[in-house]
Specification:
disordered C terminus; four-stranded antiparallel sheet; 116 residues
Amino acid sequence: MLYDLRTSAWTELASFPDSVIGDNPTWSRDGKFIHADAPFSAKPAIYRIGIPSKRIERVADLKGIQRVHGNMGAWIGLTPDNLPLILRRLRASRPFSRLHVSEKSPTRAFEVGRVR
């Protein structure tokens, strides 16, 4: 749901039949898109939703990635150039890592650094 301050109206931007929208939708830097995830879907992914077109585009496949769930839920964010970021669990000796999820190849993700 998106609330428009000028019109005082709510608009439903997206819904997923097999999942809720994740806990942390994120605005693009230019304000033209919201990035949201469908964490409980059979095919979990990050989606870019156009404002005001409501066009939904799958930008990252998250299947098989063990995500970290904390006080903010399963966090997602964006790099300065609007590429998706997530937190994932690695192993006990290195429990958390930031991931850059490639927008050009939505089925590939790679580790960009360790969170200390």
